Protein backbone atom coordinates (compact mmCIF):
# COMPACT_ATOMS: atom_id res chain seq x y z
CA UNK A 1 0.00 0.00 0.00
CA UNK A 2 2.76 2.45 0.93
CA UNK A 3 4.54 1.64 -2.34
CA UNK A 4 1.30 2.45 -4.13
CA UNK A 5 0.98 5.80 -2.35
CA UNK A 6 4.59 6.62 -3.19
CA UNK A 7 4.47 5.50 -6.83
CA UNK A 8 1.29 7.43 -7.60
CA UNK A 9 2.62 10.59 -5.92
CA UNK A 10 6.30 10.75 -6.81
CA UNK A 11 6.03 14.50 -7.40
CA UNK A 12 5.03 15.03 -3.76
CA UNK A 13 6.43 12.27 -1.53
CA UNK A 14 9.08 9.63 -1.09
CA UNK A 15 9.12 6.35 0.84
CA UNK A 16 11.55 5.31 3.58
CA UNK A 17 11.02 1.69 2.73
CA UNK A 18 12.66 0.06 5.74
CA UNK A 19 10.68 2.21 8.18
CA UNK A 20 7.22 2.33 6.54
CA UNK A 21 7.45 6.11 6.49
CA UNK A 22 6.14 8.45 3.77
CA UNK A 23 7.97 11.80 3.79
CA UNK A 24 7.78 14.96 1.73
CA UNK A 25 9.78 14.73 -1.46
CA UNK A 26 11.79 17.87 -0.73
CA UNK A 27 12.76 18.35 2.89
CA UNK A 28 11.91 21.87 3.94
CA UNK A 29 14.37 23.54 6.32
CA UNK A 30 13.58 26.41 8.67
CA UNK A 31 10.11 25.21 9.54
CA UNK A 32 8.78 23.03 12.34
CA UNK A 33 8.58 19.44 11.05
CA UNK A 34 5.19 17.80 11.55
CA UNK A 35 4.85 14.03 11.94
CA UNK A 36 1.79 11.87 12.46
CA UNK A 37 0.95 8.22 11.98
CA UNK A 38 -0.67 5.19 13.50
CA UNK A 39 -1.97 1.83 12.44
CA UNK A 40 -2.81 1.29 8.77
CA UNK A 41 -6.36 0.87 7.49
CA UNK A 42 -7.38 4.52 7.98
CA UNK A 43 -6.37 5.82 4.56
CA UNK A 44 -6.03 8.55 3.41
CA UNK A 45 -4.84 9.02 7.01
CA UNK A 46 -2.02 9.55 7.45
CA UNK A 47 0.25 9.23 4.41
CA UNK A 48 -2.30 10.98 2.18
CA UNK A 49 -1.72 14.17 4.16
CA UNK A 50 2.05 14.40 3.67
CA UNK A 51 3.12 17.38 1.60
CA UNK A 52 3.23 21.13 1.34
CA UNK A 53 1.08 22.74 4.04
CA UNK A 54 0.41 19.59 6.05
CA UNK A 55 2.64 16.77 7.34
CA UNK A 56 6.37 16.30 6.76
CA UNK A 57 6.13 12.58 7.48
CA UNK A 58 3.60 9.84 8.25
CA UNK A 59 4.58 6.60 9.98
CA UNK A 60 2.46 3.55 9.19
CA UNK A 61 2.07 0.58 11.51
CA UNK A 62 0.48 -2.72 10.51
CA UNK A 63 -3.32 -2.73 10.14
CA UNK A 64 -4.86 -1.20 13.31
CA UNK A 65 -1.51 -1.54 15.11
CA UNK A 66 0.73 1.26 16.32
CA UNK A 67 4.02 1.88 14.47
CA UNK A 68 7.04 0.99 16.58
CA UNK A 69 9.21 3.67 18.26
CA UNK A 70 12.18 2.92 16.00
CA UNK A 71 10.23 3.71 12.86
CA UNK A 72 8.78 6.85 14.45
CA UNK A 73 12.31 7.92 15.43
CA UNK A 74 13.51 7.24 11.87
CA UNK A 75 10.80 9.60 10.63
CA UNK A 76 11.88 12.24 13.16
CA UNK A 77 15.50 11.87 12.16
CA UNK A 78 14.65 12.22 8.48
CA UNK A 79 12.58 15.41 8.66
CA UNK A 80 13.98 17.18 11.75
CA UNK A 81 14.98 20.83 11.40
CA UNK A 82 16.52 23.45 13.66
CA UNK A 83 13.02 24.66 14.48
CA UNK A 84 12.10 21.31 16.02
CA UNK A 85 9.58 18.53 15.48
CA UNK A 86 5.92 18.24 16.49
CA UNK A 87 4.40 14.76 16.78
CA UNK A 88 0.62 14.39 16.40
CA UNK A 89 -0.69 11.13 17.86
CA UNK A 90 -4.20 9.82 18.34
CA UNK A 91 -5.17 8.88 21.90
CA UNK A 92 -4.65 5.10 21.87
CA UNK A 93 -2.38 3.57 24.49
CA UNK A 94 -0.06 1.95 21.90
CA UNK A 95 0.29 5.10 19.80
CA UNK A 96 0.81 7.36 22.82
CA UNK A 97 3.43 5.02 24.33
CA UNK A 98 5.36 4.57 21.09
CA UNK A 99 5.29 8.21 20.02
CA UNK A 100 6.46 9.23 23.52
CA UNK A 101 9.24 6.67 23.42
CA UNK A 102 10.37 7.92 20.03
CA UNK A 103 10.29 11.49 21.36
CA UNK A 104 12.49 10.42 24.24
CA UNK A 105 15.04 8.84 21.91
CA UNK A 106 14.98 12.00 19.80
CA UNK A 107 15.57 14.26 22.80
CA UNK A 108 18.49 12.07 23.80
CA UNK A 109 19.83 12.89 20.35
CA UNK A 110 19.37 16.63 20.99
CA UNK A 111 16.34 17.01 18.76
CA UNK A 112 13.64 19.37 20.06
CA UNK A 113 10.38 17.38 20.04
CA UNK A 114 6.89 18.10 21.32
CA UNK A 115 3.78 15.89 21.23
CA UNK A 116 0.11 16.67 20.83
CA UNK A 117 -2.49 13.97 21.54
CA UNK A 118 -5.85 14.11 19.74
CA UNK A 119 -8.95 12.83 21.57
CA UNK A 120 -11.99 14.08 19.66
CA UNK A 121 -14.30 11.04 20.06
CA UNK A 122 -17.11 12.00 22.44
CA UNK A 123 -18.46 8.44 22.54
CA UNK A 124 -16.17 7.92 25.55
CA UNK A 125 -17.24 9.90 28.62
CA UNK A 126 -13.85 10.11 30.31
CA UNK A 127 -11.71 12.69 28.43
CA UNK A 128 -8.52 10.80 29.37
CA UNK A 129 -9.74 7.74 27.49
CA UNK A 130 -11.29 9.52 24.51
CA UNK A 131 -10.00 8.16 21.23
CA UNK A 132 -8.59 10.22 18.39
CA UNK A 133 -10.62 9.86 15.20
CA UNK A 134 -11.48 11.98 12.13
CA UNK A 135 -11.00 15.32 13.90
CA UNK A 136 -7.28 14.53 13.80
CA UNK A 137 -7.24 15.61 10.15
CA UNK A 138 -8.18 19.17 11.19
CA UNK A 139 -5.12 19.15 13.48
CA UNK A 140 -2.89 18.09 10.57
CA UNK A 141 -4.34 20.75 8.32
CA UNK A 142 -4.24 23.70 10.71
CA UNK A 143 -0.94 22.86 12.45
CA UNK A 144 0.50 22.11 9.01
CA UNK A 145 -0.37 25.58 7.77
CA UNK A 146 1.04 27.14 10.96
CA UNK A 147 4.33 25.28 10.47
CA UNK A 148 4.48 26.17 6.78
CA UNK A 149 4.04 29.85 7.69
CA UNK A 150 7.16 29.64 9.84
CA UNK A 151 5.73 29.65 13.35
CA UNK A 152 7.90 28.36 16.21
CA UNK A 153 7.57 24.89 17.75
CA UNK A 154 5.72 26.29 20.76
CA UNK A 155 3.39 28.33 18.56
CA UNK A 156 2.56 25.36 16.31
CA UNK A 157 1.99 23.19 19.38
CA UNK A 158 -0.33 25.81 20.89
CA UNK A 159 -2.33 26.02 17.67
CA UNK A 160 -2.56 22.22 17.46
CA UNK A 161 -3.77 22.04 21.06
CA UNK A 162 -6.38 24.70 20.39
CA UNK A 163 -7.71 22.57 17.51
CA UNK A 164 -7.76 19.49 19.77
CA UNK A 165 -9.73 21.48 22.35
CA UNK A 166 -12.14 22.80 19.70
CA UNK A 167 -12.93 19.61 17.76
CA UNK A 168 -15.40 16.87 18.71
CA UNK A 169 -16.48 13.82 16.68
CA UNK A 170 -19.07 11.07 16.90
CA UNK A 171 -19.51 8.12 14.54
CA UNK A 172 -21.93 5.35 13.66
CA UNK A 173 -21.48 2.09 11.76
CA UNK A 174 -23.82 -0.03 9.66
CA UNK A 175 -21.40 -2.88 8.97
CA UNK A 176 -17.92 -3.87 10.19
CA UNK A 177 -14.65 -4.14 8.30
CA UNK A 178 -12.79 -7.45 8.06
CA UNK A 179 -9.30 -8.24 9.27
CA UNK A 180 -7.09 -8.98 6.26
CA UNK A 181 -5.16 -11.55 8.31
CA UNK A 182 -8.00 -13.47 9.99
CA UNK A 183 -10.91 -12.63 7.67
CA UNK A 184 -13.00 -11.98 10.78
CA UNK A 185 -15.33 -8.98 11.15
CA UNK A 186 -14.15 -6.20 13.50
CA UNK A 187 -17.47 -6.50 15.40
CA UNK A 188 -20.84 -8.23 15.07
CA UNK A 189 -23.88 -6.30 13.96
CA UNK A 190 -27.24 -7.50 12.64
CA UNK A 191 -28.33 -6.53 9.15
CA UNK A 192 -30.92 -4.07 10.44
CA UNK A 193 -28.84 -2.75 13.32
CA UNK A 194 -26.71 0.31 13.71
CA UNK A 195 -23.92 0.84 16.23
CA UNK A 196 -23.53 4.29 17.71
CA UNK A 197 -20.27 5.75 18.90
CA UNK A 198 -17.91 2.99 17.87
CA UNK A 199 -14.18 3.49 17.33
CA UNK A 200 -12.31 3.37 14.04
CA UNK A 201 -10.84 -0.04 14.91
CA UNK A 202 -14.23 -1.52 15.68
CA UNK A 203 -14.02 -0.78 19.40
CA UNK A 204 -17.48 -1.06 21.04
CA UNK A 205 -19.72 1.98 20.87
CA UNK A 206 -22.33 3.37 23.24
CA UNK A 207 -25.28 1.36 22.04
CA UNK A 208 -26.65 -0.85 19.30
CA UNK A 209 -30.10 0.15 18.03
CA UNK A 210 -32.41 -0.68 15.14
CA UNK A 211 -31.56 0.87 11.80
CA UNK A 212 -32.29 4.61 11.68
CA UNK A 213 -33.07 6.97 8.83
CA UNK A 214 -30.51 9.51 7.65
CA UNK A 215 -32.50 12.20 9.46
CA UNK A 216 -32.43 10.24 12.72
CA UNK A 217 -28.70 9.62 12.39
CA UNK A 218 -28.10 13.33 11.76
CA UNK A 219 -30.16 14.17 14.83
CA UNK A 220 -28.37 11.62 17.02
CA UNK A 221 -24.89 12.79 16.05
CA UNK A 222 -25.39 16.55 15.91
CA UNK A 223 -27.52 16.85 19.05
CA UNK A 224 -24.90 15.03 21.09
CA UNK A 225 -22.02 17.05 19.61
CA UNK A 226 -23.74 20.38 20.30
CA UNK A 227 -23.65 19.60 24.04
CA UNK A 228 -19.90 20.20 23.92
CA UNK A 229 -20.04 23.73 22.54
CA UNK A 230 -21.37 27.17 23.31
CA UNK A 231 -22.36 28.07 19.74
CA UNK A 232 -23.32 31.70 20.31
CA UNK A 233 -21.35 34.07 18.05
CA UNK A 234 -19.14 31.20 16.90
CA UNK A 235 -18.46 29.70 13.49
CA UNK A 236 -17.90 26.01 12.83
CA UNK A 237 -16.30 23.76 10.22
CA UNK A 238 -18.16 20.48 9.74
CA UNK A 239 -16.59 17.23 8.56
CA UNK A 240 -18.83 14.43 7.26
CA UNK A 241 -16.48 11.47 6.97
CA UNK A 242 -17.07 8.08 5.34
CA UNK A 243 -15.58 5.17 7.29
CA UNK A 244 -14.61 3.54 3.98
CA UNK A 245 -17.48 1.84 2.17
CA UNK A 246 -20.16 4.50 2.52
CA UNK A 247 -20.29 6.27 -0.85
CA UNK A 248 -20.61 9.99 -1.58
CA UNK A 249 -24.27 9.53 -2.52
CA UNK A 250 -25.13 8.53 1.05
CA UNK A 251 -22.84 11.18 2.59
CA UNK A 252 -24.67 13.88 0.65
CA UNK A 253 -28.10 12.59 1.71
CA UNK A 254 -26.91 12.75 5.32
CA UNK A 255 -25.35 16.18 4.71
CA UNK A 256 -28.75 17.57 3.73
CA UNK A 257 -30.26 16.37 7.01
CA UNK A 258 -27.32 17.67 9.04
CA UNK A 259 -27.52 21.07 7.39
CA UNK A 260 -31.27 21.37 7.99
CA UNK A 261 -30.82 20.44 11.63
CA UNK A 262 -27.85 22.79 12.02
CA UNK A 263 -29.94 25.68 10.76
CA UNK A 264 -32.77 24.78 13.13
CA UNK A 265 -30.22 24.98 15.93
CA UNK A 266 -28.83 28.35 14.72
CA UNK A 267 -25.42 26.81 14.18
CA UNK A 268 -23.26 29.16 12.10
CA UNK A 269 -21.43 26.96 9.58
CA UNK A 270 -18.27 28.33 7.98
CA UNK A 271 -17.77 25.38 5.60
CA UNK A 272 -18.11 21.64 5.06
CA UNK A 273 -15.66 18.82 4.35
CA UNK A 274 -17.41 15.77 2.94
CA UNK A 275 -15.38 12.74 1.84
CA UNK A 276 -13.37 9.77 3.20
CA UNK A 277 -10.83 11.47 5.48
CA UNK A 278 -10.18 8.82 8.12
CA UNK A 279 -11.52 5.37 7.35
CA UNK A 280 -11.66 1.98 9.00
CA UNK A 281 -10.80 -0.11 5.91
CA UNK A 282 -14.12 -1.04 4.26
CA UNK A 283 -16.35 -0.29 7.26
CA UNK A 284 -19.80 1.06 6.41
CA UNK A 285 -20.56 4.15 8.44
CA UNK A 286 -19.88 7.80 8.96
CA UNK A 287 -18.53 10.20 11.51
CA UNK A 288 -19.48 13.80 12.08
CA UNK A 289 -16.96 16.33 13.40
CA UNK A 290 -17.56 19.87 14.60
CA UNK A 291 -14.65 22.29 14.81
CA UNK A 292 -15.12 25.64 16.53
CA UNK A 293 -13.26 28.30 14.57
CA UNK A 294 -11.77 31.70 15.21
CA UNK A 295 -10.23 34.10 12.70
CA UNK A 296 -6.74 32.63 13.07
CA UNK A 297 -7.97 29.04 12.65
CA UNK A 298 -10.00 30.04 9.56
CA UNK A 299 -6.94 31.66 8.04
CA UNK A 300 -4.90 28.47 8.59
CA UNK A 301 -7.72 26.20 7.44
CA UNK A 302 -7.85 28.09 4.12
CA UNK A 303 -4.12 27.60 3.48
CA UNK A 304 -3.76 25.72 0.17
CA UNK A 305 -1.97 22.39 0.47
CA UNK A 306 -0.35 19.98 -2.00
CA UNK A 307 -0.76 16.45 -0.69
CA UNK A 308 -1.60 13.05 -2.26
CA UNK A 309 -5.14 13.33 -0.91
CA UNK A 310 -6.44 16.84 -1.47
CA UNK A 311 -7.80 18.67 1.58
CA UNK A 312 -8.57 22.23 0.50
CA UNK B 1 -28.69 14.12 -2.26
CA UNK B 2 -28.65 17.15 -4.58
CA UNK B 3 -29.72 19.35 -1.67
CA UNK B 4 -26.79 17.95 0.28
CA UNK B 5 -24.34 18.71 -2.54
CA UNK B 6 -25.75 22.24 -2.80
CA UNK B 7 -25.83 22.97 0.94
CA UNK B 8 -22.27 21.79 1.53
CA UNK B 9 -20.94 23.79 -1.47
CA UNK B 10 -22.90 27.04 -1.44
CA UNK B 11 -19.73 28.97 -2.29
CA UNK B 12 -19.43 27.08 -5.59
CA UNK B 13 -22.83 25.90 -6.84
CA UNK B 14 -26.57 26.45 -6.74
CA UNK B 15 -29.49 24.06 -7.24
CA UNK B 16 -32.31 24.37 -9.79
CA UNK B 17 -34.62 22.43 -7.53
CA UNK B 18 -37.46 21.73 -9.96
CA UNK B 19 -35.07 20.35 -12.59
CA UNK B 20 -32.56 18.38 -10.49
CA UNK B 21 -29.76 20.48 -11.92
CA UNK B 22 -26.63 21.71 -10.12
CA UNK B 23 -25.13 24.83 -11.75
CA UNK B 24 -22.18 27.08 -11.08
CA UNK B 25 -22.97 29.72 -8.48
CA UNK B 26 -21.95 32.58 -10.74
CA UNK B 27 -22.84 32.22 -14.39
CA UNK B 28 -19.81 32.95 -16.52
CA UNK B 29 -20.48 34.77 -19.80
CA UNK B 30 -18.22 34.71 -22.84
CA UNK B 31 -17.22 31.08 -22.48
CA UNK B 32 -18.64 27.87 -23.90
CA UNK B 33 -21.04 26.40 -21.35
CA UNK B 34 -20.37 22.74 -20.51
CA UNK B 35 -23.14 20.43 -19.35
CA UNK B 36 -23.05 16.78 -18.39
CA UNK B 37 -25.27 14.45 -16.41
CA UNK B 38 -26.93 11.08 -16.32
CA UNK B 39 -28.54 8.78 -13.82
CA UNK B 40 -27.72 9.26 -10.13
CA UNK B 41 -25.64 6.79 -8.12
CA UNK B 42 -22.30 7.68 -9.75
CA UNK B 43 -21.23 10.42 -7.34
CA UNK B 44 -19.11 12.52 -7.42
CA UNK B 45 -20.16 12.29 -11.10
CA UNK B 46 -21.58 14.56 -12.24
CA UNK B 47 -22.60 17.31 -9.82
CA UNK B 48 -19.27 17.11 -7.97
CA UNK B 49 -17.53 18.41 -11.10
CA UNK B 50 -19.55 21.62 -11.47
CA UNK B 51 -17.48 24.74 -10.95
CA UNK B 52 -14.61 26.85 -12.17
CA UNK B 53 -12.60 24.98 -14.80
CA UNK B 54 -15.01 22.07 -15.29
CA UNK B 55 -18.79 21.89 -15.82
CA UNK B 56 -21.29 24.73 -15.84
CA UNK B 57 -24.17 22.38 -15.04
CA UNK B 58 -24.89 18.73 -14.19
CA UNK B 59 -28.33 17.20 -14.70
CA UNK B 60 -29.24 14.30 -12.41
CA UNK B 61 -31.75 11.61 -13.30
CA UNK B 62 -33.16 9.09 -10.81
CA UNK B 63 -30.77 6.30 -9.74
CA UNK B 64 -29.29 4.68 -12.87
CA UNK B 65 -31.93 6.40 -15.04
CA UNK B 66 -31.36 9.09 -17.65
CA UNK B 67 -32.51 12.64 -16.86
CA UNK B 68 -35.46 13.72 -19.01
CA UNK B 69 -35.02 16.11 -21.97
CA UNK B 70 -36.96 18.88 -20.25
CA UNK B 71 -34.55 18.99 -17.31
CA UNK B 72 -31.56 18.85 -19.66
CA UNK B 73 -33.04 21.74 -21.64
CA UNK B 74 -33.61 23.70 -18.41
CA UNK B 75 -29.91 23.27 -17.66
CA UNK B 76 -29.01 24.48 -21.16
CA UNK B 77 -31.30 27.46 -20.84
CA UNK B 78 -29.80 28.40 -17.46
CA UNK B 79 -26.12 28.35 -18.43
CA UNK B 80 -26.20 29.14 -22.19
CA UNK B 81 -23.92 31.90 -23.46
CA UNK B 82 -23.28 33.58 -26.80
CA UNK B 83 -20.39 31.16 -27.33
CA UNK B 84 -22.70 28.15 -27.24
CA UNK B 85 -23.22 25.01 -25.20
CA UNK B 86 -21.43 21.65 -25.28
CA UNK B 87 -23.23 18.60 -23.91
CA UNK B 88 -21.16 15.65 -22.69
CA UNK B 89 -23.17 12.42 -22.50
CA UNK B 90 -22.17 8.85 -21.76
CA UNK B 91 -23.00 6.29 -24.44
CA UNK B 92 -26.22 4.77 -23.08
CA UNK B 93 -29.29 4.75 -25.29
CA UNK B 94 -31.43 6.69 -22.80
CA UNK B 95 -28.81 9.36 -22.16
CA UNK B 96 -27.97 9.78 -25.85
CA UNK B 97 -31.64 10.03 -26.83
CA UNK B 98 -32.53 12.52 -24.12
CA UNK B 99 -29.47 14.72 -24.53
CA UNK B 100 -30.08 14.83 -28.32
CA UNK B 101 -33.72 15.69 -27.80
CA UNK B 102 -32.79 18.50 -25.40
CA UNK B 103 -30.24 19.74 -27.97
CA UNK B 104 -32.97 19.81 -30.62
CA UNK B 105 -35.26 21.85 -28.39
CA UNK B 106 -32.39 24.22 -27.68
CA UNK B 107 -31.58 24.67 -31.38
CA UNK B 108 -35.22 25.42 -32.03
CA UNK B 109 -34.75 28.18 -29.48
CA UNK B 110 -31.71 29.51 -31.41
CA UNK B 111 -29.14 28.20 -28.92
CA UNK B 112 -25.92 26.82 -30.47
CA UNK B 113 -25.48 23.30 -29.03
CA UNK B 114 -23.05 20.49 -29.80
CA UNK B 115 -22.86 17.00 -28.26
CA UNK B 116 -19.95 14.72 -27.46
CA UNK B 117 -20.61 11.07 -26.58
CA UNK B 118 -18.12 9.24 -24.33
CA UNK B 119 -17.59 5.50 -24.90
CA UNK B 120 -14.41 4.52 -23.06
CA UNK B 121 -15.44 1.05 -21.79
CA UNK B 122 -13.45 -1.55 -23.76
CA UNK B 123 -15.41 -4.45 -22.25
CA UNK B 124 -17.78 -4.08 -25.21
CA UNK B 125 -16.19 -5.07 -28.54
CA UNK B 126 -18.42 -2.99 -30.83
CA UNK B 127 -17.38 0.70 -30.50
CA UNK B 128 -20.94 1.84 -31.24
CA UNK B 129 -22.20 0.05 -28.16
CA UNK B 130 -19.32 0.89 -25.84
CA UNK B 131 -20.49 2.45 -22.60
CA UNK B 132 -19.20 5.67 -21.09
CA UNK B 133 -17.63 5.13 -17.68
CA UNK B 134 -14.88 6.71 -15.54
CA UNK B 135 -12.93 8.11 -18.52
CA UNK B 136 -15.77 10.63 -18.85
CA UNK B 137 -14.25 12.60 -15.97
CA UNK B 138 -11.14 13.28 -18.08
CA UNK B 139 -13.44 14.76 -20.74
CA UNK B 140 -15.05 17.06 -18.15
CA UNK B 141 -11.69 18.14 -16.84
CA UNK B 142 -9.94 18.81 -20.14
CA UNK B 143 -12.91 20.27 -22.05
CA UNK B 144 -13.70 22.30 -18.93
CA UNK B 145 -10.26 23.86 -18.96
CA UNK B 146 -10.52 24.53 -22.72
CA UNK B 147 -13.84 26.30 -22.21
CA UNK B 148 -12.54 28.28 -19.25
CA UNK B 149 -9.61 29.47 -21.38
CA UNK B 150 -12.08 30.95 -23.87
CA UNK B 151 -11.88 28.49 -26.76
CA UNK B 152 -14.76 28.44 -29.29
CA UNK B 153 -17.53 25.84 -29.27
CA UNK B 154 -15.93 23.97 -32.17
CA UNK B 155 -12.51 24.05 -30.49
CA UNK B 156 -13.85 22.76 -27.18
CA UNK B 157 -15.79 20.05 -29.01
CA UNK B 158 -12.65 19.02 -30.91
CA UNK B 159 -10.66 18.80 -27.69
CA UNK B 160 -13.40 16.76 -26.00
CA UNK B 161 -13.52 14.37 -28.95
CA UNK B 162 -9.75 13.97 -28.85
CA UNK B 163 -10.02 12.96 -25.18
CA UNK B 164 -12.81 10.50 -26.03
CA UNK B 165 -10.59 9.00 -28.73
CA UNK B 166 -7.59 8.84 -26.38
CA UNK B 167 -9.19 7.33 -23.24
CA UNK B 168 -10.00 3.68 -22.58
CA UNK B 169 -11.32 2.06 -19.39
CA UNK B 170 -11.91 -1.42 -18.01
CA UNK B 171 -13.47 -2.36 -14.68
CA UNK B 172 -13.98 -5.30 -12.35
CA UNK B 173 -16.41 -5.89 -9.48
CA UNK B 174 -16.21 -7.97 -6.32
CA UNK B 175 -19.74 -7.30 -5.07
CA UNK B 176 -22.83 -5.58 -6.47
CA UNK B 177 -24.67 -2.47 -5.33
CA UNK B 178 -28.29 -2.62 -4.20
CA UNK B 179 -31.24 -0.78 -5.69
CA UNK B 180 -32.57 1.71 -3.12
CA UNK B 181 -36.12 1.10 -4.37
CA UNK B 182 -36.20 -2.71 -4.61
CA UNK B 183 -33.35 -3.64 -2.26
CA UNK B 184 -32.19 -6.12 -4.90
CA UNK B 185 -28.54 -6.53 -5.93
CA UNK B 186 -27.56 -5.11 -9.33
CA UNK B 187 -26.17 -8.54 -10.28
CA UNK B 188 -25.40 -11.92 -8.66
CA UNK B 189 -21.85 -12.84 -7.80
CA UNK B 190 -20.50 -15.55 -5.50
CA UNK B 191 -18.40 -14.56 -2.49
CA UNK B 192 -15.20 -15.81 -4.12
CA UNK B 193 -15.98 -14.62 -7.62
CA UNK B 194 -14.99 -11.56 -9.55
CA UNK B 195 -16.77 -10.12 -12.57
CA UNK B 196 -14.61 -8.63 -15.30
CA UNK B 197 -15.68 -5.81 -17.57
CA UNK B 198 -19.04 -5.02 -16.05
CA UNK B 199 -20.80 -1.67 -16.46
CA UNK B 200 -21.39 0.97 -13.82
CA UNK B 201 -25.07 0.03 -13.59
CA UNK B 202 -24.32 -3.64 -13.07
CA UNK B 203 -24.59 -4.52 -16.77
CA UNK B 204 -23.06 -7.92 -17.46
CA UNK B 205 -19.31 -8.06 -18.03
CA UNK B 206 -17.11 -10.27 -20.18
CA UNK B 207 -16.67 -13.11 -17.75
CA UNK B 208 -17.00 -14.25 -14.16
CA UNK B 209 -13.92 -15.92 -12.71
CA UNK B 210 -12.60 -17.04 -9.36
CA UNK B 211 -11.26 -14.30 -7.09
CA UNK B 212 -7.89 -12.92 -8.25
CA UNK B 213 -5.04 -11.23 -6.43
CA UNK B 214 -4.39 -7.52 -6.84
CA UNK B 215 -1.48 -8.37 -9.13
CA UNK B 216 -3.67 -10.57 -11.32
CA UNK B 217 -6.34 -7.88 -11.52
CA UNK B 218 -3.71 -5.28 -12.48
CA UNK B 219 -2.43 -7.62 -15.17
CA UNK B 220 -5.88 -8.38 -16.55
CA UNK B 221 -6.90 -4.71 -16.77
CA UNK B 222 -3.65 -3.15 -17.98
CA UNK B 223 -2.76 -5.83 -20.53
CA UNK B 224 -6.14 -5.50 -22.18
CA UNK B 225 -6.04 -1.70 -22.18
CA UNK B 226 -2.56 -1.59 -23.73
CA UNK B 227 -3.96 -3.34 -26.83
CA UNK B 228 -5.73 -0.10 -27.69
CA UNK B 229 -2.64 2.12 -27.75
CA UNK B 230 0.67 2.56 -29.50
CA UNK B 231 2.65 3.60 -26.43
CA UNK B 232 5.94 4.50 -28.14
CA UNK B 233 6.99 8.07 -27.38
CA UNK B 234 3.68 8.76 -25.66
CA UNK B 235 2.76 9.82 -22.15
CA UNK B 236 -0.29 8.63 -20.26
CA UNK B 237 -2.49 9.71 -17.36
CA UNK B 238 -3.81 6.80 -15.32
CA UNK B 239 -7.03 6.81 -13.32
CA UNK B 240 -7.59 4.15 -10.64
CA UNK B 241 -11.24 4.56 -9.71
CA UNK B 242 -13.19 3.00 -6.83
CA UNK B 243 -16.71 1.94 -7.77
CA UNK B 244 -17.92 3.11 -4.36
CA UNK B 245 -17.14 0.73 -1.51
CA UNK B 246 -13.52 -0.12 -2.31
CA UNK B 247 -11.42 1.96 0.09
CA UNK B 248 -8.21 3.88 -0.61
CA UNK B 249 -6.16 1.17 1.12
CA UNK B 250 -7.11 -1.35 -1.55
CA UNK B 251 -6.76 1.18 -4.40
CA UNK B 252 -3.18 1.88 -3.31
CA UNK B 253 -2.32 -1.82 -3.11
CA UNK B 254 -3.61 -2.20 -6.67
CA UNK B 255 -1.78 0.97 -7.73
CA UNK B 256 1.54 -0.57 -6.72
CA UNK B 257 0.88 -3.60 -8.92
CA UNK B 258 -0.30 -1.45 -11.82
CA UNK B 259 2.78 0.77 -11.59
CA UNK B 260 5.15 -2.21 -11.51
CA UNK B 261 3.46 -3.72 -14.54
CA UNK B 262 3.39 -0.38 -16.37
CA UNK B 263 7.15 -0.05 -15.93
CA UNK B 264 7.70 -3.61 -17.16
CA UNK B 265 5.76 -2.58 -20.29
CA UNK B 266 7.76 0.65 -20.72
CA UNK B 267 4.61 2.70 -20.31
CA UNK B 268 5.53 6.36 -19.75
CA UNK B 269 3.22 7.63 -17.00
CA UNK B 270 2.66 11.38 -16.69
CA UNK B 271 0.55 11.17 -13.53
CA UNK B 272 -2.02 9.21 -11.55
CA UNK B 273 -5.53 9.94 -10.31
CA UNK B 274 -6.56 7.57 -7.52
CA UNK B 275 -9.92 8.01 -5.79
CA UNK B 276 -13.70 7.53 -6.26
CA UNK B 277 -14.37 9.50 -9.47
CA UNK B 278 -17.32 7.64 -10.97
CA UNK B 279 -19.02 5.16 -8.70
CA UNK B 280 -21.87 2.71 -8.84
CA UNK B 281 -23.39 3.48 -5.45
CA UNK B 282 -21.80 1.06 -2.94
CA UNK B 283 -20.46 -1.42 -5.52
CA UNK B 284 -17.17 -3.08 -4.58
CA UNK B 285 -14.72 -2.88 -7.44
CA UNK B 286 -12.40 -0.68 -9.44
CA UNK B 287 -11.86 0.61 -12.93
CA UNK B 288 -8.61 1.48 -14.63
CA UNK B 289 -8.44 4.22 -17.28
CA UNK B 290 -5.57 5.09 -19.60
CA UNK B 291 -5.51 8.49 -21.28
CA UNK B 292 -2.97 9.18 -24.01
CA UNK B 293 -1.67 12.71 -23.62
CA UNK B 294 -0.06 15.36 -25.80
CA UNK B 295 1.34 18.72 -24.73
CA UNK B 296 -1.98 20.53 -25.18
CA UNK B 297 -3.92 17.91 -23.20
CA UNK B 298 -1.32 18.04 -20.41
CA UNK B 299 -1.64 21.80 -20.24
CA UNK B 300 -5.43 21.54 -19.93
CA UNK B 301 -5.24 18.64 -17.45
CA UNK B 302 -3.06 20.78 -15.16
CA UNK B 303 -5.57 23.66 -15.12
CA UNK B 304 -6.61 24.22 -11.49
CA UNK B 305 -10.33 23.79 -10.85
CA UNK B 306 -12.67 24.77 -8.02
CA UNK B 307 -15.42 22.16 -7.76
CA UNK B 308 -17.23 20.38 -4.89
CA UNK B 309 -15.13 17.26 -5.53
CA UNK B 310 -11.52 18.26 -6.10
CA UNK B 311 -9.87 16.98 -9.26
CA UNK B 312 -6.46 18.64 -9.49
For the CA atoms, what is the radius of gyration of chain A?
18 Å
What structural category do the secondary elements of chain A indicate?
alpha/beta
Sheet with the most strands: spatial strand order of chain A: 1-2-4-3-5-6
What is the CA-CA span between the terminal residues of chain A? Answer: 24 Å
What is the number of E strands of chain A?
12
Oligomer: homodimer
Q: Percentage of helical residues of chain A?
A: 25-40%
Number of helices of chain A: 8
Q: Supply the CATH superfamily name of the largest domain in chain A.
A: Dihydroxyacetone kinase, domain 1
Please sum up the structure shown.
Two copies of one chain form a homodimer. With 312 residues, chain A is an alpha/beta fold.
Written overview of the protein:
The structure is a homodimer of 312-residue chains. In chain A, the strands form two sheets. In chain A, strands 1-2-4-3-5-6 form a six-stranded mixed β-sheet, with helices on both faces. In chain A, strands 9-8-7-12-10-11 form a six-stranded mixed β-sheet. In chain A, helix 2 packs across helix 3, helix 4 packs antiparallel against helix 5 and helix 6 packs across helix 7. Helices cover 31% and strands 25% of the residues of chain A. The first copy, chain A, has two domains: 164 residues, Rossmann fold (3-Layer(aba) Sandwich), CATH 3.40.50.10440; 132 residues, Dihydroxyacetone kinase, domain 2 (Hypothetical Protein Tm841, Chain: A,domain 3, 2-Layer Sandwich). With 312 residues, chain A is an alpha/beta fold. Chains A and B meet through helix 1, helix 7 and strand 11 of A and helix 1, helix 7 and strand 11 of B.
